[in-house]
Amino acid sequence: MADLEHDAVSLSFATKVLGPILLAKHLAPRMPRDGSFVLFSGSSARKPAIGMLAVAATNGAVDVVTRSLAVELAPIWVNAISPADPPSSGGLR
After folding, report:
1. Do 23 and 65 form a contact (C-beta atoms < 8 A)?
2. What transmembrane ranges does the database entry give (predicted)?
3. Domain residue spans in the chain?
4. Mean pLDDT score of the chain, rounded to an integer?
């Protein structure tokens, strides 16, 4: 947490949360009813680790945005994919 910087956190949210919201706002009206959006989440939303607070918070927000956009944009599909969990380093602390 000591090295956490405002600009890095803001950029993370702007890229993975605000960007998809604004893209959906502008593109959904032009998409076919059977279209879909795919967002990128991450395993840190499910398994927070030391030093990954901003990434975990951003990925958690992506999960909420995905569910919310799915409700707002139905019948257009909205899904999030998440890279595989990293190899185990001996368990959680």
Report:
1. no
2. none
3. 6-81
4. 87
Would you report the helix, strand and coil content of the chain in percent, each value rounded to 5?
55, 10, 35
Is 43 an annotated catalytic residue? Answer: no
Of the candidates 69, 59, 78, the residue with the CA atom closest to the CA atom of residue 12: 59
pLDDT digits (tens, 9 = 90+) for 4-16: 889 989 999 999 9
Closest CA to 46 of 88, 85, 90: 85
Please identify which of the residues 10, 41, 44, 89 carries the catalytic annotation: 41
69 and 24 in contact (C-beta within 8 Å)? yes
Strand partners, 79: 38
State both tokens at 39.
């967002």
Secondary structure of residue 50 in the 3-state scheme: coil
